[in-house]
Amino acid sequence: SCKQFPTGPIETTLCDYETVESVTEDLYTELHSLVETPFFKYFRVDLYRECPFWSDNGFCMNRECGITTVDESEIPERWRAAALSKVEMPPEDQRTLLPGCYYRDSDYCFLDDMTEGDYVDLTMNPERFTGYVGPSAHRVWSSIYEENCFGMSEVNLLSGEAPNPAPATPPDSLTGALKADSAENTRECLERRVYYKIISGLHASISTHICHEDMDQTTGEWGPNLKCFIERIASYPERLQYIYFDTVLLLRAVARLGPYLSAYDYCGTGTHEDDTATLARLTKVIDIAQAVGKFDETVLFRGENANILKEEFKEHFRNVTRIMDCVGCDKCRLWGKVQTTGVATALKILFELDENALDPRQNANLLQRSEVVALMNTLHRFTESLHAVNDFRRMWAETGAQE
Ligand code: FAD
């Protein structure tokens, strides 16, 4: 009786699961090539800023937690810090400075100081199992969920979620039929629910990567771990739903940003052919995003206290990006920063920028390179998670066939 794929509308969006499923593999193929191009694979990040919220954030000493950086001389000159700080830094009056970082009023994230940090080749440091577990990781996740408090009494949503019991029957999220959103409380305001979905979807996507590229502790071999996926994601259908939700949200942002992305200068990668190929891949991604990214951002932040709520939402999301400095594992922190910056960039595009602001002729310096790189890599991460879910579904079906 279980359907092959999840069906029906993805709540709070104008899109359904079938539509996302129908483009997942194409989108994944295009994005996977795109993020391997020089423009999209080099990311500048400051991994050594102090955690602003607590001091004892236990460091992961496993080899897998480490990252390799790239010498600045390998980076095309026009993308380097000195050039970037001239071209990309917004004027002083448009940014708010804090020690080691700054933001513009429209930003949903704190961007690393452009004069600090290292370049990282993201393709050389894949997000996967690192062994970063225990109280430090849990504390970071709890703090992120606790930001979900908009002028109301504080509720710890981590403990508030009612987990499903261990699955005696095949989990629906593996066989396909996703149930109605059981974690939803209709009395909650829409913005609060959206915040929770964004975070829970990000958490579920990271967990999916960990389970899909897991290391067998005894043999040292890497591979997908179905049990891990069942325990951490498939047993909680709403977590999988939120991966779809985040994907649609990001696609909508990419769709709106289409003209700006098409006009962006990707040169510096080497040959003219390389630059043309980068743009061609990007165009395919934008086309898919425009067809599928049906998220109606206008339903949020309406009514009497809309502006106050939006400022709170922004402030909370900025805090999430700062909490990334408390992640005690370099590789996890790197991907945490990439993805929270990517989601923050999407939120800025959806909730802060009108068509005039998004017009590349009127606003050529709208986004920094790091925001564009983070946005596309984050969409790639989520699409890769959906691709991994398809793998897990196949593995589950094969397990069933053997029994
Ligand atoms: P956790 O994933 O730590 O979750 C803690 C609790 O949150 C769970 O017990 C559950 O109650 C609840 N929960 C779990 N998932 C969800 C969800 N989707 N929605 C709502 N509630 C949920 N580890 C790696 O190996 N590689 C990485 O690249 C990596 N990156 C990370 C990035 C960040 C920003 C952080 C904070 C951690 C990262 N980790 C990474 C650690 C990883 O996320 C887990 O914390 C770790 O694997 C321990 O998992 P756990 O099973 O104890 O539960």
UniProtKB/TrEMBL annotation:
Domain of life: Eukaryota
GO biological process entries: protein folding in endoplasmic reticulum
Keywords: Disulfide bond, Electron transport, Endoplasmic reticulum, FAD, Flavoprotein, Glycoprotein, Membrane, Oxidoreductase, Redox-active center, Signal, Transport
One GO molecular-function entry: protein-disulfide reductase activity
Location in the cell: Endoplasmic reticulum membrane
GO CC terms: endoplasmic reticulum membrane
Cofactor: FAD
Membrane topology label: Peripheral membrane protein
Keyword Membrane: yes
Quaternary assembly: May function both as a monomer and a homodimer.
Family according to the record: Belongs to the EROs family.
Name of the protein this chain belongs to: Endoplasmic reticulum oxidoreductin-1
Annotated source species: Grifola frondosa
